[in-house]
């Protein structure tokens, strides 16, 4: 699997990481998403499927930290999967300091539209993870992202 | 007061009886706490499973009108059940948490109640709001062409 982050996604995760209650967000992303098969990611993250039956899934992934999917905090991540490539669009927490309501359908459509545009124009950051370090890096220059 | 064997025996029996009764009371109380611990834990685990099952509705492709009626019914049931879960949770919290008992179990249970309604509302949003939008369906079609 290859992984790509939208700039806005990186900004949103950085914002979360500044808060004590989400300080493990990067670790949660790594353990729930990276170095897993598509099926395992979707199962691991209790994914909601936005476009059921379509060839390329758009999913809302639930990432949590702590034991079990219902304790600790929960954040939702918008993701698209195309040919073993996982694209991350938007992250928002449901619980914790920045806990918020779900996006409206109109806002979600806009997020998906922007991600599609970025995919088409190749305007996304390719990333990889070093599980030993529990860190996510930019693929081109090996610099840490968060 | 004269000390006779009858007198001592009577007082000893009385004391032993009281201490035995106290021990029985403590045991009964501990049994009850353990019973409640299991009950809350079972409730939380079952609610997590239920939430997963509800979430899977978003993975069904080609949902027909008749299926939508069923799903609407399930969503209504989920919302009604949430009210009952919360009522029962509040009553149990008053009984136990205020006495400093079973706080961890109650907290986990509360999280699963929140997860459940969050899931119900998300399913409703995806199936009856997002997927009804023309712009969303156009984007999904575009994505499939990639």
Defining key terms:
heterodimer, A: 146 residues, alpha+beta, 7-stranded mixed beta sheet, 4 helices, B: 146 residues, mainly alpha, rod-shaped
Task: Give a description of the structure.
The complex is a heterodimer of chains A (146) and B (146). Chain A has 146 residues and is of the alpha+beta class. Chain A is globular, with a radius of gyration of 14 Å. Chain A is built from 4 helices and 7 strands; from the N terminus they run βαααββββαββ. Chain A has one domain (2-138). In chain A, a hairpin with an 8-residue loop joins β2 and β3. By secondary structure, chain B is mainly α. Chain B has one domain (5-144). Chain B is built from 4 helices and no strands. Chain B has helices at 5-55, 65-96, 103-128, 134-144. In chain B, α2 runs antiparallel to α3 (103-128). In chain B, 23% of the residues are buried. The model of chain B has no long low-confidence stretch (mean pLDDT 91).
Provide a concise account of the structure shown.
The complex is a heterodimer of chains A (146) and B (146). Chain A is α+β, with helices and mostly antiparallel strands.
Which SSEs are present, and which pair or pack?
The complex is a heterodimer of chains A (146) and B (146).
Chain A lengths: L1 E4 L1 H12 L6 H9 L4 H7 L3 E2 L8 E8 L7 E10 L2 E9 L11 H16 L4 E6 L4 E4 L8
Parallel strand pairs in A: 1-5
Antiparallel strand pairs in A: 1-6, 2-3, 3-4, 4-5, 6-7
Chain B lengths: L4 H51 L9 H32 L6 H26 L5 H11 L2
Helix pairs in contact in B: 1-3, 2-3
The helix/strand series of chain A, from N terminus to C terminus, equals: EHHHEEEEHEE
Order of helices and strands of chain B: HHHH
Question: Mean pLDDT of chain B, nearest integer?
Answer: 91
Alpha-beta content class of chain A: alpha+beta
Strand content of chain A: 25-35%
> What radius of gyration of chain A results from the CA coordinates?
14 Å
Number of domains of chain B: 1
- Side by side, the strands of the main sheet of chain A go 2-3-4-5-1-6-7
Helix tally of chain B equals: 4
Strand content of chain B: under 5%
Largest sheet of chain A: 7 strands, mixed
Shape of chain A: globular
Kindly, what is the distance between the CA atoms of the first and last residues of chain A, rounded to a whole number of angstroms? 21 Å
Radius of gyration of chain B: 28 Å
Mean pLDDT of chain A: 89
Biggest protein-protein contact in the assembly: A-B, 32 and 35 residues
> Whole-Å distance between the termini of chain B?
102 Å
Oligomer: heterodimer
Number of strands of chain B: 0
